[in-house]
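Lab notebook page, bench 4
Experiment: in silico fold of construct C2
Operator: M.H.
Input chain length: 288 residues
Purpose: comparison with the prior construct
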Amino acid sequence: MPTKRIEMSDDQFTKLAKIIYDRSGIHFPDAKKYILESRLTNRLGELEVEDFDQYIALLSMGPYQQDEFQEMFNRITINETSFFRNDAQLEIFETRVLPHLLETRATTKRLRIWSAACSTGDEPYTLAIQIHRSLGVRLADWNIEILGTDISQKALDVAMSGEYTSYAVRTTPPNIIKRYFKEDGRSFVLSPEIQRMVNFEKHNLKDRLAAKRHGTWDVIFCRNVLIYFDDAMKNQVIGMFHDQLAEDGALFIGHSERIKDMGNKFEQVPLPQGFCYAKSGHTGLLAA
């Protein structure tokens, strides 16, 4: 029997939205109150909590508040991703940005890529496959560091398992599936050689100090995340990416996102469908 909808008052929504914003940076406007109400009704039933006041208290105090916030976060966010999502953008990474970086780092033979808010790992693993294909036998000579981070431990657990459903590989070319995946019943298990190329870590994009500890990245991917932030949080995240990106590095964001109004830290690289940004004054290095 379906759980009866528990109504959320405007005051309860304000308090809950503030908790979510303070801890994750994700902004829920008033018009999205119904999302929190509908997605959390079942959770309140599971906990035998009578109303949202009690639930807010559970999130605000006691030994399990962090665990419950994580559970709530998993329910109110949608980890919509897949391997080889957005062909045009990934082609620009593989055919324009990657060759430039491999050439300019030929002496150190070190390449560092950060996939921020990577969800279940489809994106960083896709980048690993592209690098594996591009370098071939030369891969052994390079120090390739790919880090996937996300605020959801549940999503990261999937990523670290390397096991996916057919839905995750629905946009993946058949030759890639044949080369890099093994079908196991209804699952697609990623090859160990690709899994070894990527590390995963839980990270909140509000935490600039944690990001700083990782040093400078040559490429940062953060796609379809900025749309969930208000301007203040966007400015904070964009500033963090600017601080952590190499001078000739590249930042990739989602199709529906823009950062042109977020100050003058980045300029869009004139590559069709690329949605690729470079630090201001450095777009020519990637567009050449």
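Observations: The radius of gyration is 20 Å. Strands lie at 110-115, 143-150, 163-165, 181-184, 187-190, 198-202, 217-222, 245-253, 266-268, 276-279.
Next step: discuss at group meeting.
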